[in-house]
Design goal:
Length: 1170
């Protein structure tokens, strides 16, 4: 090929088909066999029938957006083509061989176009078949019939496509209403595979019309020249997707995708796609940012090549011809087409002209790790005395795979014999891929000379006869084996030499680096993170320096994390150890803010897409905008989008991401993911979106030590929505998340998800929708909540200030605290319609609603409360409030309270503690200071209601009528309990009851206010209720509300009196700890009575940074402290908190400090040398 003309042809059997393209629009087609070729001048060809932009694609929403596959996990830009044709085409061509030759020539023409345009892709035919079909003469009809399954036309084509793994399919037809027609990809997506079809007039698919390349260009997203193109807002490539045409020297030229004008001005179609990086006759064939079909092809090739997994194995060279100038050398690459299950050894040989010989290795091995990486073949042409151009055949062969032949041509350069000898070979990286830019220094007694490897990693040098010396390879960032090569006196060509280059297993990225950009060091760091992540190099980790990185130039661009690779941010750009990085100060931002800065309508649909085994650590992921509507996954996962992958994310912040459907921070579908110490902040799902921070579907996901703040959704789950999944939240904090329009769940919406939630905090989450769950809504879900705290969550539209439980959910609660949550209707803390509600241990403090300040039920529910402190809850809204703590609605099955302390609960109307429905049992419960403005300081009973009080204390409650229990109807009983009958109205039956002051330690606490946390209903030593209860009553517990054993005759009320001295700390109040470790201190204490001790964190400015083992006293940092970046409130590395120890009856606090010490960090995670 020269810059002024092109020759291309193919031979199938004895049949040739090809063309010669000259300048000034001249050219000839030729066809025939070895008996003679018929040549004719180019004749006008029909133009493309236009671009078909299909709406509603794809029908499978899972395929609307998929992670791009790279050489690590895909077919690496090899596009497999199935070609079908009817008998009418065979008849016009002459026979099947003629058709096959035409196809082969056109495919090589297309590959020539890709090479000329520097597009990293290759087209191959995997199968050709004749089909039973009569073309209609209308390409739109033929294309529809080709593409549609089950319509009775060419249905076997779809079977053939799957059988041969064809990514694209083309139908050849006789003359038709246009030259070709194809569906046009509007954005890169695996989902487009269902439309990967085209139709072409058979005899213009190759040069000079290049219709096959043109229509495949449409399949891959290319448009015509701007004057003749049509597109709309869904076309993501539109800014630069156009072909180019121009005039020069009195001639008009056009690239592959461009139309001629009418009248004709741009008649010369050249084998180039528009590209600003390539020139033809001195003129750029594209324009940056506008006419750049090459960029479109480069972006879509990783998707199109993976429409189907390749199944036809082959030894696939980058080209099937190679010209070598006499006395010189040339190289090409080849690869396997299909990933092998066992290593494949390929032999390389040359037959024909003896002047053509191999200058590189003759045997190459491929395996599952490098099968799709090009390996270098190096060919040398020996000088000779004749003037004839020689030729030879290069053959690639391997067991069980068809051999592949490449035509070699020697280009004569003269008749003078070369007196020097050739030294040649190849330098390859760890994957076997040729490495360019390596300097080989040849040193002998006379001095040194140097040569460099070419783009394929091959090298050559002519050495004088008798030369002897050493050859040493070098390139910054690489170590070579052998490190040098010694040659004795050279008396013949010395070829086939191989050097293996090894680089650091760390790939360095720094947007401000100015070195070579190969990523081997900070100096030579890559500057484009998105490109670095898919680079063909062997690395295990990626280190990224501070700064803002963008995934590409179009909205479907994303940072595609490679499989089994760890990607770390937070570096300054000089570190030698991973532990030296500091993400809190070196902000490494992955931004989707493409196009116009600050305008989200042109932002990336997804910022990050992980693969299986990926690790992402130390980044800020922001400004993604997944804006597409339902059935299109480009409406989910603006920050991170994951489907069917297993990955880990640590120390990352997801902020300011927005989606239409949900999962604005992260969308997880059939994923197995772990998030550790991550922040989800200010992510928003639009009015129809769900899961403003995270949307989890059919997945197994764990969140640890992570926070969700100020996220919002319109439809459900301001912070998170989980569907049909399993997972856990451990030590997480969900604050100020909001649901705005419908379906509730200000923070967390669970649907068919048995989530495990432990030591997590829900604060000031809210919904303003007329729905349920200020913080959490459960739908057919039975999660567990252990040692969690719910504070000031709010439902402004309906019920369940903190949690709503639907009729198909049965959660479990243990040791949780509900503080000051509220709703405008039912259940300030919890509103349940579930079958059971069991709460064991914890606190209800200051919650309020219209009905049931703490808890409200509806429907067939069985309720059980045990070991709870129920303090200061109120039914206080305007209307007819009822049930200061609980409101039991129609359908209640049963309600039981065991070992509960109830004080200061209020109703501004009736039922100061609870609104009864049916039978309620209280066992070993203590009541004090509860009140109702009108009826029943504890409750008023109506027909069908009953209350049973066993081992209980009722004292000091108040109401307008019936300070304790108002038995208006129904029944009441008290056994082995203390109460004053005069404080109740109606009959209370029972025996073994007392009527005197129970002598609580301090019922209204030091502040003298009932309903505050200091209320203490434990017993003084002289209390009359000591040893007066019965162990024989139903629902009796052998331990009290604090878990202390009840021995002998138990005491009445929630707390067993134990004559005990308080415990005392024996450990120091000051500790020190090394940085980079989580262990902070071991607390110790003694109890004079030998009681078991329980440790807890009680307060302090830095309490949120610590965890404390309640049994062992082991105090730990939630995440390892960094001396250089302290996170304590005073930022002085002195962490302050209050701890306490309890023996079950008395709690003793202690102020302690933990000082973090600087540590001379060693060399873990040091990048390997060489």
């Amino acid at each position: 090929m020269t810059e002024k003309g092109f020759l291309s042809f193919a031979k199938v059997g004895r049949v040739y088909n090809g063309s010669v393209t000259l300048t000034a629009g001249l050219g000839y087609c030729f066809k025939g066999d070895s008996n003679g070729l018929a040549m004719e001048a180019f004749s006008p060809a029909k133009s493309c029938g236009g671009c078909i932009h299909e709406k509603g694609l794809p029908p499978d929403p899972r395929k609307a957006d998929q992670p791009v596959k790279s050489w690590r996990n895909g077919d690496a830009n090899l596009v497999d083509l199935l070609v079908v044709y009817p008998s009418a085409v065979r008849s016009e061509a002459g026979d099947a061989n003629a058709v096959a030759a035409t196809i082969a020539s056109a495919v090589e023409d297309a590959n020539l176009c890709y090479r000329n345009s520097l597009v990293p892709m290759q087209l191959r035919v995997v199968h050709v078949a004749e089909v039973v079909y009569t073309p209609t003469g209308q390409m739109s009809i033929d294309l529809s019939r080709l593409r549609t399954k089950g319509d009775g036309f060419m249905d076997d084509v779809h079977t053939l496509r799957d059988q041969y793994g064809a990514d694209l399919v083309t139908l050849l037809t006789p003359d038709s209403d246009s030259g070709g027609l194809a569906s046009t990809m509007t954005h890169p997506s695996l989902g487009f595979e269902s439309s990967g079809f085209s139709v072409n007039i058979w005899d213009q698919i190759g040069s000079p019309s290049y219709t096959l390349a043109h229509e495949i260009g449409h399949n891959m997203g290319c448009l015509h020249n701007r004057e003749d193109a049509t597109w709309d807002s869904d076309f993501e490539f539109s800014a630069f997707s156009f072909g180019k045409r121009w005039q020069q020297g009195g001639q008009g030229y056009r690239s592959i995708m461009s139309y001629d004008s009418n009248p004709s001005v741009f008649s010369n179609r050249i084998p180039y796609f528009s590209s600003p990086d390539v020139t033809y006759l001195g003129t750029s064939v594209g324009n940056a940012g506008t006419e750049d079909n090459a960029q479109v092809l480069s972006l879509s090739a990783p998707y199109v090549s993976n429409f189907r997994k390749s199944v036809v194995q082959a030894l696939l060279p980058t080209r099937f011809d190679l010209q070598v100038v006499e006395g010189g050398s040339a190289s090409l690459k080849f690869r396997l087409a299909v990933q092998p299950t066992v290593p494949v050894q390929v032999s390389v040989s040359i037959s024909g002209d003896g002047d053509l010989s191999l200058a590189g290795p003759t045997d190459l091995t491929f395996d599952s790790g490098n099968w799709n990486i090009g390996r270098t073949i190096h060919v040398f042409a020996q000088s000779d005395a004749d003037s004839a151009n020689g030729s030879a055949t290069l053959t690639l062969s391997a067991n069980g795979i068809p051999s592949t032949s490449i035509q070699l041509s020697e280009i004569e350069s003269g008749t003078t014999l070369e007196s020097s000898f050739l030294f040649a070979g190849v330098v390859s990286n760890e994957l076997g891929m040729g490495l360019s830019g390596v300097t080989l220094t040849l040193t002998d007694a006379q001095g040194s000379t140097a040569v460099q490897t070419d783009a394929n990693g091959s090298f050559r040098s002519l050495l004088a006869a008798g030369w002897s010396g050493a050859i040493t390879p070098s390139r910054a960032g690489y170590v070579f084996a052998p490190s040098s090569l010694s040659l004795g006196s050279i008396l013949a060509n010395s070829v086939g030499h191989e050097f293996s280059a090894t680089r650091s297993s760390i790939l360095y990225v720094d947007k401000d680096a100015v070195g070579s950009g190969d990523g081997t060091s900070w100096t030579n760091a890559a500057t484009d993170l998105a490109q670095a992540l898919v680079s063909q190099a062997s690395f295990n980790e990626v280190w990224v320096a501070e700064g803002t990185y963008f995934p590409g130039s179009i909205r479907p661009s994303a940072f595609n994390l490679p499989p089994d690779i760890q990607v770390y941010g937070g570096f300054g750009g000089t570190e030698t150890l991973r532990d030296q990085r500091n993400p809190s100060s070196n902000h490494t931002i992955l931004s989707g803010d493409l196009g116009v800065q600050g305008v989200d309508s042109d932002n990336a649909f997804h910022v990050v897409i992980p693969s299986s085994g990926s690790v992402l650590d130390g980044f800020v992921i922001k400004d993604g905008h997944a804006s597409k509507n339902f059935s299109d996954d480009r409406g989910k996962g603006a920050g991170l989008w994951a489907d069917s992958s297993t990955f880990t994310v640590r120390n990352c912040t997801f902020s300011n991401n927005r989606s239409r459907q949900g999962g604005s921070g992260a969308y997880l579908k059939e994923a197995n993911a772990t998030f550790i110490s991550c922040v989800f902040s200010s992510n928003a799902a639009d009015s129809t979106g769900t899961g403003g921070g995270v949307l989890v579907e059919d997945s197994n996901v764990s969140f640890q030590f992570s926070s969700f703040t100020s996220n919002s959704s319109g439809f459900a789950g301001g912070a998170m929505r989980w569907s049909d999944s399993v997972g856990s939240l451990l030590d997480c904090n969900l604050t100020l998340n909001q649901n705005t329009s419908a379906n509730g769940a200000g923070a967390l919406y669970l649907q068919n998800t048995p989530l495990t939630v432990t030591r997590s905090i829900f604060t000031q989450n809210s919904t303003s929708a007329n729905s349920y769950g200020g913080a959490i809504k459960l739908s057919a879900s039975s999660p567990s909540f252990t040692n969690c705290i719910f504070t000031r969550n709010f439902n402004a539209g309906n019920s369940g200030g903190a949690i709503y439980v639907d009729s198909s959910s049965n959660p479990t609660f243990s040791g949780n605290e509900f503080r000051y949550n509220s709703s405008v209707q039912f259940g300030g803390a919890i509103f349940t319609e579930g079958q059971t509600l069991n709460l064991d241990g914890g606190l209800f403090l200051g919650n309020h609603a219209l009905y049931g300040g703490g808890v409200s039920t509806n429907g067939s529910v069985a309720v059980s409360f045990s070991n709870l402190r129920i303090i200061g809850n109120e039914a206080n809204a305007s209307g007819s409030p009822s049930g200061g703590f609980a409101y039991f609605n129609t359908g209640l099955i049963s309600s039981t309270f065991v070992n509960c302390s109830l004080s200061g609960n209020k109703s501004s109307d009736r039922n100061g503690v609870y609104r009864p429905k049916g039978l309620t049992r209280f066992v070993n419960c203590s009541f004090a200071g509860n009140e109702a403005s009108t009826l029943g300081g504890i409750a008023i009973l109506f027909s069908g209601d009953s209350i049973a009080l066993d081992n209980c204390i009722i004292w000091g409650n108040s109401a307008g009528t019936g300070n304790d229990v108002y038995v208006n109807a129904g029944s009441a009983s008290a056994n082995s309990s203390l109460y004053d009958p005069s404080q109740s109205l109606g009959s209370i039956t029972g025996s073994n009851n007392l009527n005197s002051d129970p002598l609580f330690v301090d019922a209204n606490g030091p502040d003298n206010l009932f309903g505050t946390e200091d209320d203490d209903l434990s017993l003084q030593s002289s209390s009359p209720v000591i040893d007066q209860a019965s162990p024989s009553v139903a629902n009796y517990s052998a331990t009290d509300a604090l878990g202390r054993g009840r021995s002998g005759n138990p005491d009445m009320g929630a707390y067993e009196f134990i004559s005990a001295s308080p415990p005392s700390f024996t450990s120091s109040a000051s500790f020190s700890a090394q940085e980079n470790q989580t262990q902070a201190a071991i607390l110790s204490a003694v109890d004079p009575n030998g009681d078991s001790l329980i440790y807890s964190i009680a307060g302090g400015s830095d309490q949120a940074l610590f965890s404390l083992d309640s049994n062992t006293g082991a105090l730990s940092f939630n995440s390892s402290p960094d001396f250089e970046s302290p996170t304590d409130q005073n930022t002085d590395n002195v962490y302050e908190l209050i701890v306490r120890v309890s023996d079950g009856s008395t709690q003793v606090p202690q102020n302690i400090t933990v000082t973090v010490l600087d540590f001379n960090e060693g060399v873990p995670n040091s990048p390997p040398v060489g």
